[in-house]
Every structure is written in C-alpha cells, then in structure tokens.
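Per reviewer request, we include the raw input and output of the structure prediction for the construct analysed in the revised manuscript.
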Amino acid sequence: MASNRRIPIKRIIVSSVFIVFFAVVLIAIASFSKTPNGQNNGGPHGPQGFDNSLLPKSNIDKYVDKLIAENDNYKMYLTASNLSVSIEDKRNGSLIHTTVKEDREGINKQWVGFIKSGIVLNVIDGYNEAVQADLINNTNLIEITEINNGFKADITFLDYGFRLSMNVTLVGDEMLVEIPDESIKESRDKYHIGAINVFPMMGHSYLGEKEGYMFIPDGNGALIYLNDKEGRLTGGYSQMVYGEDIGFKDQSTQSLLWERHQTVNEAEYVLAPVFGMVHTSDIGYLGIIEGGAERASIEAYPNGVKIPYNRIYPKFVLRRTFKQPTSNSSSGVVDDIEEDRIHYNIKVRYKFVDGNNANYVGLALSFRDYLIEEFHLHKDDSTYNTRIDFIGTEREEWLFSTRNVTMTTIQNIRDIYADLEEEGITDILSIYKGWQKGGINKVPIEKYKTDRNIGKTKDLTRLIKDINESGRKLYLYHDLLRINPDEFNTTFNVVKRIDKRLFEEPTYMQVYEDMLYLIPKRSNYYFEKLVDDYSRAGISDLAIGGITSSIFTFSYSGSEYSRGYTRDAYESMLSKSDDKFGYLLEQPFAYLWKYTDAFLDLPIGTSQYNFVDEEIPFLAISLKGLMPLYSEYMNFEANKEEFFLKLIEMGVYPSFLITWENSSKLIYTNSADIYSSEYSIYKDDIIRYTTALKEVNDSVQGAYIIDHEKLDSGLTIVTYDNGTKIYVNYGNETQPIDGYTVEAMSYKVGESK
C-alpha cells in the first residue's frame, strides 16, 4: 500500500536548489568547452591547448578595496572583481582611481562595462571589430597572486576563451603595469583579441567636477581641460604612437584642389609615447609606454563624447583587419585579418606628481628625469647656432626627359658664409640637400658624388673641411627611406602593404608623382655603401631623414614584418655607425633621440584640433638643455612675429631654407611648394634672429627650464634653473612684471627676484 507520508516542503526546496545548482555547473562546464555559438571546441582542451580543467578557483572575494602595497608617499588599493586600483597620496589624501566607483543613470550596459573595468578588450568576432569584452558584462575568472609591492592578476574571459596576466606594482612614486606577451592566449578559432585597453579610466573625472586637464602628445604638447563641455564635442584624440602605419593605410583617391594640391594638413605625429592626467594642485600622472609603443595609440576623450567622463589611456593593438583585393569577389575586395597577432610585452609606467607639481610643467620635468635616467640623455652645452639649410639642384620636365635646375652651388655657400661673417654672424649650422648627382629627388643616394652643376666632389669635401675648421658644421642630407621609381628599378626591395599591394607615397607634384619606400634591409644596404665612401673622404657629419619619423608594417617576399621589426632595423642601422658619424635626425621618434646631436624640425604648435583647449611646450620643456632644438623652417610661417616669440619662449633655435637663386626657378619642379627661399630676401632676418636669439641663449646656456607660467594678460614667464627668467608678451599692451616693462609682442630677459 502506498505511503501517505507527506514530504516536508523545506526538503523539497533544498533538493530543488541543489539540482538547479548542479545543472548550472554542468551547463557552465559544457559551455566553456564550446565556442559562444555552440560549436564544440574539443572538450576541455581548446584548439591551442587551452586546458579548461586547469582553471584555478577565483579568490577575488578577499580583495575589496584592500591595501595591496604601500611606501613612504603612496598607498595602492585593489578591488579584484573588476581590477579596480586606487592610488592614494599619503601626504594630502588625494586619490586616483582606475575605474568608476559610482553608478550613473543614462549610461548603457556596454559603457558601464568599459568604465568599471580595469582592462577592456576589443574582440574580433570573425571580421567584426566592434565587439567588447570587459569584466562586468562578460563571464570571467580572476585569480590574484600577491607579489612584491603589488599583485599579479590572471584573467580568463570564459565567453571568448582568452587568457592574460597583468602585473601591477608600486615602486616609489611610480606604478608599473605589465602584460607579458607569453601570458596572452586565444583558444578559439573564431575569436581574436584585436586590442587591449589598459586602465581606460585611469584618473578619470565626471563632467566638470575637477579642475585640471588631460595632456596629449600632439605636436609639442596640448591640453584638454576637464571642465564641463556641455555636450558640445563629438570626438576626441586617437593617434598611433610614432605615426600612422602605412602598411594598413587606405590609398583610395583623396579630394584634391585642381586634382593636385592637398587641402587638409595631416595631424602631427606622436613623437614620444607619453600622455597624462592632472587634477590641478592635487594629484596627477605622466604615463609612459615602455613596451608595445610601436603598436599603441593614445586615446583621449573629453566628457560628453559618448559618456560624461574625461578619460585618457593607451590602447595596444594585437591584430587588425583589412581589405584584401581579389578578383574572386563581386566587390573586388574581401575582409581579411592578420594571420598572427603581434607579439610584444605591454608595459606602461605611471609617474605620479602631486601638490605644486601637479601641472603640465611637473609632467614635463618628470619626463626629462626619465630621459636622463632611462634613455641616458645628458646635459648638452647647447651652443647656439642658427640653422641655414641649402638646396643644391632640382629637376624640371623638359621635352621627353628632365633637366637640371641649379639653386645653390658650393661656391654660393662659401659666398653666403663669407657675407654673413662680415656682418658678425658666425654661429651657423647647415644641411646641404640636393648635393648628390641627379639632385634632391635622386634617391636613394648610391655614392658620394656631387651633381656636376654645383661643383666637383673634391670641392664639396674641401668646403666641409673648411667649415669644420672654422668651428661650424655642414651636414650632408640623406633620405634613407624613399626610392624614386622614375630614377631607379623598383621591381624588388620596396615596401608592400599588408594586403600585398605596393605602397605609393604621392608627392602632389608634377615631375615625380610618387615615391616608394625601401624595405629596411635595402636602406641599410645603401647606407653601408655610403659609410665606406664617407670614411675614405674624411666626412663624419650626416643629416638623416625618412627613417627617423616612419615605422610601418609591410609584406615582402611572402612574409609579413611588424612595426617593431622596422623600428629595430632602423635603430640597428644608426647604432652600428654611431661611433663614426655625428648625426642630425629629422623630427626623430623618441627611441632614436640618443643618436642625434640635435632635434631637427621640432613642432612649435599642434594639429589645432577643436577639442584642444591649450597648446603647451611639453617637448621643449623636457628636452631644453639635453640637446639643441631646431624649429621647422620659418620661411613658411604666416605670422613670423609670433613665431619668433615662440622660439624665445621655448628656447628653440631658428631654421631657414635658403637658395642662392630666386625660388621662382622651382615652380616646375617637385620643390614648387618652396615659394620663398632666396638668400638676399632672408639675409636681414637671419641676422636679426641670430643676434636676438644668441643673446637669449647666452643667458640660459647649459640650464634647464624649471617653470612655465601663462598669465591671462597674454604674458608668459619661463624660469630656468640658473635663475634667469624670460618674459614673453603676446598681448597688445605693454605690461609691467617683476620690476620689468615688457612691450607688446616683445620679450625681456631678467633674473629671478
């Protein structure tokens, strides 16, 4: 007979909960052995040996705002569930957070995941790059291991089969963040890591709640204020460190004026891998990318751009998608992806500033200290020289070929030097461009041989020797990157993009319409040939361009080469002959600064983005005293009076591009954009600039900039560590300051009082 005994409801509930829990565990295990679209992925071992059975048990519950490291000045706290790190300045109680702590209405789920995660991944799903993986919306597992002065976080994104490790340590006044390359694992065929955003909300602020700014490395430097933008802006700053990657550049037809003239200026390159956030007179940091800079971008967005937060951070690209031309599709192209991700160790150093140092000057001084300690740059005597560059010969179209256009001969240079010496101007440094046989666009240079129209090779050798003996310098210019397809066979040894298409650089000129890039190995081949030639001739001073401000991904002979490969090849090229030559490098990227005797073409301004609130001389403050700094050519500056004052303010030396002949002779050459260069026109400017700037430099020679202050009146005060102060008045009225009177649009050299 069946029992009529009733089962207690409590037992039924407990049993049901246990069954549900057990089922959830089984489903989770099963789903982790499948891709998110339900396809089996080989059981516990993924296609790349990703062993799910070895996953550790998370221990994040014990790390909730837990003090994880401390030293004399700072404390570091960790909330492990979303890798939220907080830095506290023990001296004033100021805090910097890497994630948003509070909850705000009106922010969608994806953005909530972004602002509350210490690390955010851009996922490539097939060929779709618009997928995000974060620590809020995606199933993940985090295991924390405490290490000396910090922690290690082993992170697994269960949804996508990604693993990586992040090491965070507090060392003195710095926080180091590292993601070792070998820790990054992708276990499923469909999903790849496109990019890693490291601490994307580091130092963030909400609308205008804090005073301060974000520092972006645009041109010489720029600030985006943290004030409430009131929704006026729709975009922010996003630029690759060390310039764009031409290996992925879209070479579709651009909109040109009269089908020839480019009407939009390109953005300034990021010359140094730095960025920053400052809460004024409170706390701030300078971020320096030490590992992975060649494949990183700086991202900075003011409040109102998508979300009401100011944020700046580095983004590290591991893979990119691209369009592959093909004859087998109706559109002519198919989507493709880099076959293998780029391999590098990600490393970011955050250098904290506080109190009176929490400003852009503090960031610049911190960077200078870093350059001295880590780059081994040292104080230079910075003897003043005006840079006067010369163009030798060009080519213009003539019948079925081209003909020579001679602009400045060897004897012309002697005459210019002698003429200036009569005026008392002897502080000169020069670069001779277009001295080689065939003229300025006959590149690469194959040997040390002059164009016969400027004089004989032995005459140039004698000129260089005579100038050197007079205590001055004449450098021969070399573009080690480009090759002219109209002058050389370019079937081999030239750069192709990642899509296997030839990269062509338009000149927007009529004689030589395009230039190609040499692969690094071929650049080195030509350079080594020249090294032998110069050594025999006794020449030891070279000005280098092209390779100094370009690194790129490229394909060659069936293989793909990364930007890191290009960077290493160029550095090796210069380092091998560094003991034989004195180099002047044209607008060099930071990794090459240790090889140059001076910085050529230092940007004085910025790209003038509409979201930039203030331009600052960040690079000038950092580098003044470490090496001579030379401006871009002042010939082409629209407001020469303001440009001159900028040189005074920044401690930068002027540059002139000079020809003996009138520039009208260049109108049918590739130098047609040089609309003013004749020596007779610029002689008085050279004398005036040299006299004034040498006097200013004599007062600060060998000194560092230690302060830079802008007043609302238009007056800027620059202070050097030898006590000298430079007052620059950009205003329209005379201004009294510190006992001095500074005329409108003028300057005054004074002393600290």
